[in-house]
């Protein structure tokens, strides 16, 4: 800062010299001078900007002082014409100086009238002023050194610049403070045009701000519903969701909607699960690192998971993958299996198992003992189970192709049942962005209905008198209440089951208010990776 | 799902013995339970008895797989061993071929093993003997048939084939839908 000031003074000195020249030399010289004074202005402006940033906080007090200075400026301006006469030019000088002077004086007048100085005229004005001020101060206080006079002048200029800048700033502030919703006409107009993304983004931010402190920031006469409606519309435009889904999401995340939508835009990290039947995590990690894969353990909660940051080889085609040492699997899909906690020598049913990620994890936990029935309604997808199970070296699994709803008529007496139900996929939008647009009320209802039938089938397949288990885990990759809490609630009413804790110490409590059963809080909403929820009702 | 007939058993065991010799009986007499071979839709499955019995609940057309699939009978009543059997064949294999890391990829993509890619080979391997192909860090990659005896391999030129490709673990990706 000091340096700049010094620089300004230095240049000011140059100008001073120029002034002397002006007194003696012709018009061309005076033009040169103007150029130099412009330089000064530039330097000062820079400095001004820095100061503005620092002093933005004390706006009001300065504003007042500025006003005072403003007055003084005006008086200075009026002096200009007077002192123009009284400058003490010699008569013949006055004669040849006059034409140039008059031109400048004109611009000066313009400035004072408009009060909106553009750079050019401002320069001339300041140049002019400095001349006059100089003369004035000469008269007032002749003891002052030329440097001191310059300093005085500089201060004045700074004050004026600051005032202008502040005016600008104030206009900006008032714009942001008084945010109003667009009127009906504006909205209509907007619908006819392609959406302006930056405008929409701005409006989202503003409306969120208003909604966060509605009492203070709202515009009189506009209801909260109007704000929310506008926000929903803008979010739909900005993130390209359909209106129905956005409404649902906003109900679930009244506060965190923005974070949720942003999270959906981000790609999930690639995670793999070690096949403990064939290798150990440490050995696998070493083998993969040797192939140029950058990875880390997934976290304290899992002993088999690895998260992959980047890889030089395709992870789905390394010899280790082909030999069944690991499985490409989302971190969140470990959780239903961990909640199921299968024991050795049990009989387990996985009702909707394709492509077999969770099934192979169950088998690994059971160390290939007992029996697993992996079922999937889709024959083509069931083939993926076959591949994965054989690759991972799992021998205790029977793969069937039934509609899960009729499974109790085929077989009963399972110790544990995992129902990873087919769903709308609203929790894994990052994986499949189609969901944003193509899901509507009907789809959700259809899903929900199917899920209700499936969960009853799952409960019926389970052996309530099992000595080791009789647990059912229901999980989906949807975050909608209709597909989760509502389904559980239905099962609680229809069958003699109760909810038990999942044994997972993270995730959020389920939405209790939807349930008549106080145990609903035992269900988990899990937003770890994709939105995912595990429930663990136990039958009997 | 039914047990194999005499004829089928003969063909199947003949094929299996090419790779593991008399070790077949180790597959049948296991200390951890009774295991059996069952035929289902021309496929031969190797499965524990209790699981097999439970799988009887599933209708024939809905049963896709149980235990481990060893291979299938072709239309001309020959037996084709599948890569899925590798887990049970590899530990009992009598003759093995190790391939260098540079040739690993080649084999996993379905090519024969060349002399240049040959790392090691079991002593006294006869010609046309079924062999298990390993990577140098003892990861079973698939199986094939020895094209040359061990002696011949020593003085074969680098581009000569030492083992014909039969099946490899790359098939898990290449032909997932044809596995069973």
Provide an overview of this structure.
Chain B: It comes from Mytilus edulis. Chain B: Interacts with pre-ribosome complex. Chain B: Required for proper 34S pre-rRNA processing and 60S ribosome subunit assembly. Chain B: It is found in: Nucleus, Nucleolus. Chain B: This is 60S ribosome subunit biogenesis protein NIP7 homolog. The complex is a heterodimer of chains A (540) and B (180). Chain A is α/β, with parallel strands linked by helices. Chain A has 21 helices and 14 strands. Chain A has helices at 2-24, 27-55, 59-86, 91-114, 119-140, 146-177, 184-192, 197-212, 214-217, 224-239, 243-252, 257-265, 281-290, 319-322, 334-340, 357-365, 379-391, 407-410, 435-438, 441-461, 485-494, and strands spanning 270-274, 293-297, 305-311, 326-328, 347-350, 371-375, 397-400, 416-420, 471-476, 497-499, 508-509, 524-526, 532-535, 537-539. Chain A has an 8-stranded mixed β-sheet with strand order 7-6-5-8-9-13-12-11, with helices on both faces. In chain A, strand 2 and strand 3 form a beta hairpin. The termini of chain A are far apart. Residues 1-86, 101-135, 513-522 and 527-540 of chain A have low confidence and may be disordered. Helix content of chain B is 27%, strand content 34%. In chain B, the strands form 2 sheets. In chain B, strands 1, 2, 3, 4, 6 and 7 form a 6-stranded antiparallel β-sheet that branches. A 6-stranded mixed β-sheet of chain B has the order 9-13-12-11-8-10. Chain B is built from 7 helices and 13 strands. Chain B has helices at residues 6-20, 24-28, 49-55, 86-89, 101-108, 150-154, 171-174, and strands spanning 2-3, 29-30, 33-40, 43-48, 63-66, 68-73, 79-81, 96-99, 113-114, 118-121, 130-135, 140-146, 161-168. Chain B is elongated and about 55 Å long. Chain B is α+β, with helices and mostly antiparallel strands and 180 residues long. The model of chain B has no long low-confidence stretch (mean pLDDT 91). The two termini of chain B are 14 Å apart. In chain B, a hairpin with a 2-residue loop joins strand 3 (33-40) and strand 4 (43-48). Chains A and B meet through helix 14, helix 17 and strand 7 of A and strand 4, helix 3 and strand 5 of B.
């Amino acid at each position: 800062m000091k340096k700049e000031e010094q620089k300004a003074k230095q240049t000011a000195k140059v100008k001073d010299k120029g002034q002397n020249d002006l007194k003696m030399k012709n018009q061309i010289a005076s033009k040169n001078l103007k150029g130099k004074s412009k330089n000064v202005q530039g330097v000062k402006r820079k400095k001004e900007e820095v100061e503005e940033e620092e002093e933005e906080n004390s706006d009001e007090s300065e504003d007042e002082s500025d006003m005072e200075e403003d007055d003084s400026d005006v008086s200075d301006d009026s002096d200009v014409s007077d002192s123009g006469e009284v400058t003490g030019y010699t008569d013949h000088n006055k004669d040849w100086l006059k034409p140039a002077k008059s031109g400048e004086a004109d611009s000066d007048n313009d400035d004072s009238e408009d009060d909106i100085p553009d750079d050019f005229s401002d320069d001339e004005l300041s140049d002019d002023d400095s001349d006059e001020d100089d003369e004035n101060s000469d008269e007032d206080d002749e003891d002052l050194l030329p440097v001191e006079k310059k300093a005085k002048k500089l201060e004045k200029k700074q004050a004026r610049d600051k005032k202008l800048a502040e005016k600008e700033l104030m206009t900006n502030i008032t714009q942001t403070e008084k945010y109003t919703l667009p009127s009906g006409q504006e909205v209509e107009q907007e619908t006819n045009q392609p959406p302006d993304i930056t405008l929409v983004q701005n409006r989202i931010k503003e409306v969120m701000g208003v909604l966060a402190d509605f009492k203070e920031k709202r515009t009189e006469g506009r209801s909260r519903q109007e704000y929310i409606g506008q926000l929903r519309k803008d979010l739909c435009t900005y993130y390209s969701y359909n209106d129905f889904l956005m409404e649902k999401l906003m109900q679930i995340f009244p506060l965190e909607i923005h974070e949720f939508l942003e999270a959906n835009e981000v790609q999930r990290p690639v995670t793999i699960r070690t096949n403990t039947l064939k290798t150990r995590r440490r050995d696998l990690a070493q083998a993969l690192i040797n192939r140029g894969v950058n990875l880390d353990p997934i976290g304290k909660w899992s002993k088999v998971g690895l998260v992959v940051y980047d890889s030089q080889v395709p992870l789905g085609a390394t010899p280790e993958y082909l030999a069944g040492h690991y499985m490409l699997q989302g971190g969140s899909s470990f959780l239903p299996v961990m909640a199921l906690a299968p024991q050795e020598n049990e009989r387990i049913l996985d009702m909707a198992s394709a492509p077999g990620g969770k099934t192979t994890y169950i088998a690994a936990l059971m160390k290939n003992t007992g029996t697993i029935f992996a079922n999937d309604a889709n024959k083509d997808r069931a083939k993926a189970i076959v591949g994965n199970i054989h690759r991972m070296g799992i021998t205790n699994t029977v793969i069937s192709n039934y509609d899960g709803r009729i499974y109790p008529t085929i077989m009963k007496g399972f110790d544990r049942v995992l129902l990873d139900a087919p769903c709308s996929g609203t929790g894994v939008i990052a994986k499949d962005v189609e969901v944003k647009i193509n899901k509507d009320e009907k789809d959700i209802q259809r899903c929900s209905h199917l899920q209700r039938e499936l969960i009853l089938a799952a409960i019926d397949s389970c052996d309530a008198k099992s000595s080791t288990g009789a647990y059912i885990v229901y999980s989906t990759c949807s975050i909608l209440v209709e597909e989760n809490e509502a389904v559980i609630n239905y099962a609680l009413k229809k069958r003699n089951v109760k909810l038990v804790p999942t044994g997972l110490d993270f995730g959020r409590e389920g939405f209790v208010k939807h349930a008549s059963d106080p145990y609903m809080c035992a269900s988990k909403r899990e937003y770890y990776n994709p939105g995912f929820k595990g429930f663990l009702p136990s039958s009997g | 799902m039914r047990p194999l007939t005499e004829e089928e058993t003969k063909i199947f065991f003949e094929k299996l013995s090419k790779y593991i010799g008399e070790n077949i009986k180790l597959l049948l007499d296991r200390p951890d339970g009774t295991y059996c071979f069952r035929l289902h839709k021309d496929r031969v499955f190797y499965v524990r008895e209790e699981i097999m019995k439970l799988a009887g609940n599933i209708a024939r057309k809905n049963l896709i797989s149980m235990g481990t699939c060893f291979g299938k009978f072709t239309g001309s009543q020959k037996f084709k061993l599948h890569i899925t059997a590798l887990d049970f064949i590899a530990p009992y294999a009598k003759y093995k071929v190790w391939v260098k890391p540079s040739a690993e990829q080649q084999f996993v993509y379905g090519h024969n093993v060349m002399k240049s890619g040959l790392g090691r080979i079991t002593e006294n391997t006869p010609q046309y003997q079924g062999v298990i192909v390993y990577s140098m860090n003892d990861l079973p990659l698939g199986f094939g048939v020895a094209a040359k005896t061990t002696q011949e391999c020593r003085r074969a030129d680098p581009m000569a084939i030492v083992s014909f490709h039969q099946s490899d673990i790359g098939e898990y990706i290449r032909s997932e839908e044809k596995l069973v």
